[in-house]
Amino acid sequence: MSDDVFGTAGIRERVLAGWSAAPVRFREDANAEEDLALGGYVDRLVIELAQNAADAAVRAGVPGRVLFEFRGNTLVVANTGTPLSAEGVESLATLRASAKRDADESAVGRFGVGFSAVLSVTDEPVILSRTGGVRFSKADTAAAIAALGETGLDTEVRRRDGKVPVLRLPFAAEGEPPAGYDTAVILPLRDEAAAALVARLLAEAGDPLLLALPGLSSIVLETDDGTRVLENAESRWWIHRTAGTFDAGEREQLLADRPIEERSRPYYSVLWALPRDPGTTLPNVVQAPTPTEEALSLPALLLASFPLDPTRRHVAKGPLTDRLVHEAATAYADLLHRRAERPEQNVLPLVPTGLAAGVLDQALREAILGVLPGTAIVRAVEDGSLLRPRDAVVVEGADDAFNRVLAPIVPGLIGSARQDRLALDALGVRRLELAEVVDQLGTAAADESPEWWSALYGSLSGMVTDALLRESLGTLPVPLADGRLVRGARALLLPGPELPIDVLAEFGEYGVRVVHPAAVDPALERLGAIPASPRSLLEDSAVRTVVEHSAEADDPDAIAHAVLSLVATDPAQAEGLWWLSDLVLRDVDGELVPANALVVPGSDAEAVLDDEEVAPIDPAVVERYGLPALAAVGVLATLGIVTSSDVALDRLPEALKDLDAIEDWAYDVAPDGSRYGATVGELTAIRDLDWIKDDAWPRVLGILGTAPELRRALVTQVRVVGPDDRPLGVPSYSAWWIRERVLLEDGEPLAGRADPDADHVLAAFLDEAPEWTRDLDPEVRSAVGLVREVGDLDADGISLVLERLADPDQEISESALLRFWRQLGTLPLFPGDAPEHVRVLGEDGWTEVVEADAAVVADSPMWLQRADLGGFVVASGAAADGLSDLLDVPLAQEVAEGKIDGAGTPADVPELVRELVPEVPHVWWEHEELTVDGVEVSWWVDADGAPHAATFDGLAKALAWASTRWDRRHVIRAVLNEPDRTSELLVDASYD
User: Is the pTM of this model over 0.70?
Assistant: First the structure.
């Protein structure tokens, strides 16, 4: 029997006497204990035991240490601090009567009922302390009640199925707490469910438990899985505490509706904690100071002395809660301010946004958002100082780089990351539209240097990729090279480093809007500015206007300097800008002359061009800008060219308008003589051909043949595409002009003369070309109209040849004429008028001239037997048709029927002939006398292709013509005349 140091027997007697006197008290005690065990404390075992340990340490004034040892089916909880006392035992056995009524304000337990949490896992709790031990037992309590023999109590026990209050009857217990501890609670677990609950609650224990119980310095958790120690929690959290005591007036106002024992504790505490490790999991509930079921959406841990309702799970409504909400909001703002003092810390993610998680959470959020706008938690871009949100401003859409530039001219400017937008709006931070700020820049930064503006544009590199932000930046001020500050980058020219500032400024006076070189940044191009190469500047319409009117300008030399300086950076940039030739420059006499009328002194151009049309340029200009730049604007050192693309022949471009007779060329080369709808993909022409001196053509043509660009412009045919999309190759403008306009000393054109390499028969009918043409490139000779072969003749040349061909004084052999007829018959061109006389075959191998109506074209050899038809022009196939049209002479079959008189006698073609020429017919028709249209002939082939003959020689020709093997007529004749040569001829034929 142990010593009853805590007077447990007396407590049992008093309780049992009360139950015996009034069994209803038994029922009330049983119901109250059951409510606590199954309701408010069902899963608060670890928290409540740790809380009791913390209060014991506080009362003892020692660091609190707690050991939770869970082995097998038993949980032992040992702690340091004030040991168990008789008063404590009586408190444990008396529901809602706390022994901590006069405890320090740092005590956490307030109501004396927390120990009832052990009933969720055990029916036999034991407490051992250095001062003694006490135990409680469901079985012993039931036995004590039964021993009383009170009918009323027995009836109540039966009604409760034998369930009795456990913690009302204490019993003395023997034992000592573990070494190093002052008190131990031993809990034999009821069942597996109880063991599972203990395991879960121990696994969930963490830093929030230590932070809620400042009286504890460490908690040791020992289980079969190992040992875990909770200590130094504050090293893992950013913590802000606040506490206070209510004065008499506040007590009256705030505690009037609270229970009596709470009114005796007029102090409060609030703790906010932010995890240092972003991966830390938060409980997401308010702790008062131990966990409640009040949801908390803020990314922090809140422990505050909120009043609780009887379930111990929810914060009670009332003025005390309202006051603590205000204190918590103020403390939260202070915590964010302290965190914001660290430059690397952004506290905006800690600002409440979105929807609240509950009524208390909503109240906390509203209170916090009422305090934060006046708390310095946002950092100024300019100097990094902390600002109150109500004093801050953000520029919509501006990124960090742009903000740094804006900061000196936008007071209170802070950064605004996209993810912080909701927080800034919740704090009431003023927003400026980007377009509004951009509009104000023209005034606020009007005196800034181009370099400052360049830095500003550089800061926009991350913003100009967004189409909406680019629209807001549409009126961004931009400094120009001429000193102006204009709004909007669109269509401004961005100069490269090769462009001199004085040149750019000069252009600015004439309306060319060029960005100051020191302000140039790639962001301007994204905003619509155009990279300004020398080419793009020269293409500017304002520059063109200035050039075209440079002769009337106040300072034409300044314009010339600006343009030539640009061109000199890269002369190729001026290609195709034909109007640059209107730029006036100084000649050797100091007069202003358009560039296209200036020549380089001592050059080929000066030698061949009429000095009444051109003047030598001032040598100082040549020395200053160089020949390439001057050539690019039209000053001539040799002959120049102009080029234009996509040329419509009925709407010639301005670039070509100064070419002499260009309209006439377009008419001449247009398909069917109509320019409408005819186009040329690219046209390159030699300019100033009409300025060439008459006696300079030998030198000019030599130049054209040796300079590649000039040569191409002369000899390359132009591809004209008609309205029907059919292409046609025609002479270049330059070749056409020379053919049409160049006359020699005799007053006759150079074109149409016999090429030095022409066929001697053709040359006989043409004028001789000058001897100097022999040194020209053959392609150049052909391009300028010299005739090397019949195909080179134009319509006028054909007329001339036909005219001279019909000259009776000319002696032309039959062989030469036959060859010439073959060439003439294939010509695609025809003269305007047919010749009145033509040359035909004559006698003895020579030819003669007859009137055109006394000649026919014999397109078959059998017609040559019909001398009655007139003189013969001989050709076959298409050449015969071409000669008939060219000479306006009929074909023989057009003037004679060619009908055979009589039928003739059919005969087989000799086998030997058929063996040599398999194509011959099997049958021929023999005539004693063969006549056609009454005229005797030796052979004929009728309309059906049947051969007729009166002689062996005639038969050979008839068979050859009928078989379309005219080339085999001599072989056939040999077989017919000399049959004994058949073997020889067959052997020879094997090599055909």
Answer: no
